């Protein structure tokens, strides 16, 4: 079938009446590149996390490492499954009639698109909440946020994302082949009733809510760290504040930039129904933007850390010729130091004694 041919029924999945022609060679090239870069990035992040988890088993870092591991594993599986299906569709010349007689592949593709789209957003918001609690309530975090609780939270997040992905199948509303005939998702054209709108709005609202929670919690965490930094009299730990703030800003920027176009586009289609002016090219571009979030996740959460920032600091100091911070302050972990400094700010009466303990630990 050429992309210019009219629509055809395909089991319970339906081709769109509109067409969205794509260059096969370029599309296959982009799919392979996205898949390869995503797999390599997330594999490297998993290796770094495994090594870090073996070296550091403090409670303050265990929850972060577990959440980060769940995030990069989810991204890795998303690239493996969705990328493999996308490459197969392009390699088969998008001939869905030949390989999707019973609409099984389209249903699996749609479920994976929704699950691997929402799950990283949910995990990002949960990580933001965990970091906010760890900085603002360090005692509560150290006593209540155990590895068992973190694993339960990871399981609940995954089950909720799976439920949202399976909801159309349970309601006998199959996923639809989109206009580009390269991916499957909720019905985005010729919306018939409120249920078609509900799925689009549910996906968009949950994604935007997760981004909003991440933004709010990261803002509170950043403000708290800045407030503690200016209140603290000692110089130790300033680099750790900078490290955490840089990570928070990167997380917010990457998530919002990559996911907002797709979420807003789906919400616009759900609200305006068949009067939406969103073109196939716009939707496809927004989808590729969202794909980049899974590629950049491991670099933001894992690789943009102390070692990388330390090298950047050395380069910046070499070019600027200004001595800002002594590099031995990078020896403490950012999370552990942030908890200690937050505890100092919450206990003014014991600040002098705690400062002496922090100074002695930094020297050791």
UniProtKB/TrEMBL annotation:
GO terms, biological process: adenylate cyclase-activating G protein-coupled receptor signaling pathway; inflammatory response; positive regulation of cytosolic calcium ion concentration; response to lipid
PROSITE patterns found in the cross-reference section: G_PROTEIN_RECEP_F1_1 (PS00237), G_PROTEIN_RECEP_F1_2 (PS50262)
Localization of this protein: Cell membrane
Gene3D superfamilies noted in UniProt: Rhodopsin 7-helix transmembrane proteins
InterPro entries named in the record: GPCR_Rhodpsn, GPCR_Rhodpsn_7TM, PglndnF_rcpt, Prostanoid_rcpt
Boundaries of every G-protein coupled receptors family 1 profile domain copy: 41-301
Ranges annotated as spanning the membrane: 26-50, 62-90, 102-129, 150-170, 198-226, 246-271
GO CC annotation: plasma membrane
Database matches in Pfam families: 7tm_1
Keyword vocabulary terms for this entry: Cell membrane, Disulfide bond, G-protein coupled receptor, Glycoprotein, Membrane, Receptor, Transducer, Transmembrane, Transmembrane helix
Primary localization: membrane
Its membrane topology: Multi-pass membrane protein
Source organism, top-level taxon: Eukaryota
CDD domains according to UniProt: 7tmA_FP (cd15145)
GO MF annotation, one: prostaglandin F receptor activity
SUPFAM superfamilies in alphabetical order: Family A G protein-coupled receptor-like
Protein name as annotated: Prostaglandin F2-alpha receptor
Species in which this protein is naturally found: Podarcis lilfordi
């Amino acid at each position: 079938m050429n992309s210019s041919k009219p629509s055809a029924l395909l089991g319970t999945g339906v081709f769109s009446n509109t067409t969205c022609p794509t260059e096969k060679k370029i599309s296959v090239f982009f799919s392979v590149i996205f898949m390869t870069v995503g797999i390599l990035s997330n594999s490297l992040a998993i290796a770094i996390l495994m090594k870090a988890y073996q070296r550091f088993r403090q409670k303050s870092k265990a929850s972060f490492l577990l959440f980060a591991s769940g995030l990069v594993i989810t991204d890795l599986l998303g690239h493996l499954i969705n990328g493999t299906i996308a490459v197969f569709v392009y390699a088969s010349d998008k001939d869905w009639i030949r390989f999707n007689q019973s609409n099984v592949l389209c249903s699996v593709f749609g479920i994976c698109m929704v699950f691997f789209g929402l799950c990283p957003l949910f995990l990002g918001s949960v990580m933001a909440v965990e970091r906010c609690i760890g900085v603002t309530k360090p005692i509560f975090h150290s006593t209540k946020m155990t590895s068992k609780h973190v694993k339960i939270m990871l399981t609940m997040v995954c089950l909720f994302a799976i439920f949202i992905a399976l909801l159309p199948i349970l309601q006998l509303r199959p996923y639809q082949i989109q206009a580009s005939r390269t991916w499957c998702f909720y019905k985005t054209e010729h919306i018939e009733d409120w249920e078609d709108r509900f799925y689009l709005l549910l996906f968009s609202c949950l994604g935007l809510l997760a981004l909003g929670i991440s933004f709010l919690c990261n803002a509170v965490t950043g403000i708290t760290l800045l407030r503690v930094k200016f209140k603290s009299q000692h110089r130790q730990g300033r680099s750790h504040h900078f490290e955490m703030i840089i990570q928070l800003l990167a997380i917010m920027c990457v998530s919002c930039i990559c996911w907002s176009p797709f979420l807003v586009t789906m919400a616009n289609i759900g609200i305006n129904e068949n009067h939406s002016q969103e073109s196939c090219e716009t939707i496809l571009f927004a989808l590729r933007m969202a794909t980049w979030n899974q590629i950049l996740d491991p670099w933001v959460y894992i690789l943009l850390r102390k070692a990388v920032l330390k090298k950047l600091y050395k380069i910046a100091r070499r070019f600027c010729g200004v001595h800002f911070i002594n590099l031995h302050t990078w020896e403490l972990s950012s999370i552990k130091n942030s908890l200690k400094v937050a505890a100092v700010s919450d206990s003014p009466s014991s600040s002098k004694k705690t400062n002496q303990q922090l100074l002695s630990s930094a020297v050791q």
